Amino acid sequence: MAEHDLKTKPAEEVATFRRSLRPRRLRLSASLRRLVRETSLKPDDFIYPLFIRHGRDQRIPIDSMPGQFQLTLDRLPAEAKAIADLGLPAVILFGIPAEKDTCGSDNFDPEGIIPRAIGIIKEAAPDLVVISDMCFCEYTDHGHCGLINTPDNPHFDPNLPLGYLLNDPTLELLARASVIHARAGADIIAPSGMLDGMVASIRQALDADAMSHVAVMSYAAKAASVFYGPFRDAAESPPSFGDRKQYQLDPANRREALKEIALDVGEGADILLVKPALPSLDILNEARRRFDLPLAAYQVSGEYAMIHGAARQGWLDLEGAALESLISIKRAGADMIISYFAKDAAAWLDSA
Ligand code: PBG
């Protein structure tokens, strides 16, 4: 009986038909389930984050992110090769500079931590896509994502509130740093500061410097999330005063998130990113429907830490919880996922 016949049939017949519906038929065996599975994970889906610092031959564990480390530059060739050997296509880099200052100058120093790291990784594993997270919070002594309106700042504007993140002067620095990272060999620049106009400024600067082949992955909708807590330990980047709510999105706002994404599409972003991942699945899914650009999701440090925390207590199965959260992010619409589970997932999927 077809669905459209039901209106014309006697009630009893319809009731019998309804009772005969058995969606469970297709879940009977593992092979059947494989056959009808709509979404799957593969190593190609993942981007692995790396935290890089100065020093020699060190691999410093990050307490709040079990299994994750800060690596010294000399550890990068082996790490990059291991990541490539797992079949992962890309890494995203975060740097801990030797010194921080008010304008985050290490970020636009050609000898800064990340430009050096990019060169080293590209030499060791030339096929690995290198994404440079483009933000100032790891490099400024105040831990904010750009220049701050204080009287000692050359860009001080008495008309703006004290402590305000100066948008346009920061855009100039983001553009400058992006060119430096691109010249060092980055394949993708990923601005993550939620400044207005960051994608357009970076695109323009790259193009003006003969870097039109370098892509921009925009953290288009990034919420001011509590789930970045462990990352701030890892990158040594907590803000020294206040919080990031004057530039990152209110997690309560879905329409505003979609407006932010639309702006970045208009400014020429090549890849769109939504963050955090599980708390933003609705936004991710709506972005998938509305926009045709590749879509990334960032399963952030707190999402990783939650799963590990529960697994340590024996409350959740680590592999099961990690893979289920990753498949859910993919099902919601992500084409690629930045995840601290990337290496584990590649290994788990290989042995499945
Ligand atoms: C830099 C940046 C942050 C994260 C990625 N890029 C920190 C922040 O915005 O405070 C967080 C990633 C994570 O929690 O894993 N702006």
Protein architecture, described:
This protein has 352 residues and is an alpha/beta fold. The chain has a single domain (40-351), classed as TIM Barrel (Alpha-Beta Barrel), CATH 3.20.20. Helix content is 38%, strand content 15%. It is built from 12 helices and 10 strands. It has helices at residues 11-20, 30-36, 76-85, 113-124, 167-184, 198-208, 229-234, 254-266, 281-290, 301-312, 318-332, 342-351, and strands spanning 46-53, 59-61, 69-72, 90-96, 129-134, 188-191, 215-222, 271-275, 295-299, 336-339. Strands 1-4-5-6-7-8-9-10 form an 8-stranded parallel barrel, surrounded by 9 helices. A hairpin with a 7-residue loop joins strand 2 (59-61) and strand 3 (69-72). The two termini are 40 Å apart.
Helix content: 25-40%
CATH class: Alpha Beta
Count of all domains? 1
Largest sheet: 8 strands, parallel, barrel
Number of strands: 10
What general outline do the C-alpha atoms trace?
A: globular
The CATH architecture category equals: Alpha-Beta Barrel
By helix and strand content, what is the structural category?
Answer: alpha/beta
Instruction: List the quaternary state of the chains.
Output: single chain
Summarize the structure.
By secondary structure, the chain is an alpha/beta fold. 38% of the residues lie in helices and 15% in strands.
